[in-house]
Amino acid sequence: MPLTTMLVGAALGIERLSARKTVGVMIAMLGVFLALMLGLSGAPPGAWRGEIVMFAATLCISLYNVWSRPFIARSSPLAFVTAGMGAAALCLFLWAILIHGFNAATNFRLPQWLAISYLGVFGGAGAFILWVFALSRTTPTKTAVTITINPVFASIVGALAIGERIGFNLVVGLAAVAVGIWIATVSEPAPAD
């Protein structure tokens, strides 16, 4: 996503491409690849379809990152999140009614409701508020490059939760992601007069 956000932002004239930003984004994305490369061999047949869907989602969020900034500036990050999440919740509610999606919830117990609450509050609203707040304060690429930390941290937490060994590739990947984010987000030095 950071690469497409950077390219979309440059193509639409929202932000300037720079060598430093490009190198930082590429290093961060290489870090994700290094951290997760051992899991690629276990991908099920037909997994490429999911990759296509993820690429389309990446393009959509990149356009969102670039095009939403004027709307965030006109209102406020909180008002923008409230309107966006409210519209999304209404659409999902109507879709769930249409496909009888609430039937599964009748069998939910406390663990399922706790998981849904956690995802809704922290994984949904909390994360979205922070994302929009970041978009209102900096460039789309600087915001998007931070997303590269998610799969690496998810792998680490997953490994710790189920007792898997944390491999060298995960440690190297995490380091590369951190370096890439730093390179992409630190301001370039001003030209000497």
Give an overview in words.
The chain has 193 residues and is an all-alpha fold. It has one domain (2-185). The protein has 9 helices and no strands. α1 (2-11) packs across α3 (48-67). The longest helix is centred in the middle third of the chain and has 28 residues, at 110-137. The two termini are 36 Å apart. The model has no long low-confidence stretch (mean pLDDT 83).
State the gist of this model.
The chain contains 9 helices and no strands.
Output the keywords.
9 helices; globular; 193 residues; mainly alpha
Task: Furnish the topology, listing elements before pairings.
Elements: H1 2-11, H2 19-36, H3 48-67, H4 69-74, H5 77-98, H6 110-137, H7 140-144, H8 149-162, H9 168-185
Helix pairs in contact: 1-3, 2-8, 2-9, 5-6, 8-9
Taken together, the total number of domains comes to: 1
Rg calculated over all Cα atoms: 19 Å
Please give the largest β-sheet.
none
Number of H- or I-type helical stretches? 9
Shape: globular
Q: Please trace the helix and strand order, writing H or E for each element.
A: HHHHHHHHH
Distance between the termini: 36 Å
The beta-strand count equals 0
- Low-confidence residue ranges: none
Which secondary-structure class do the elements indicate?
mainly alpha
Give the overall pLDDT as a whole number: 83
Helix content: over 70%
Q: How much strand content do the residues show?
A: under 5%
Oligomer: single chain
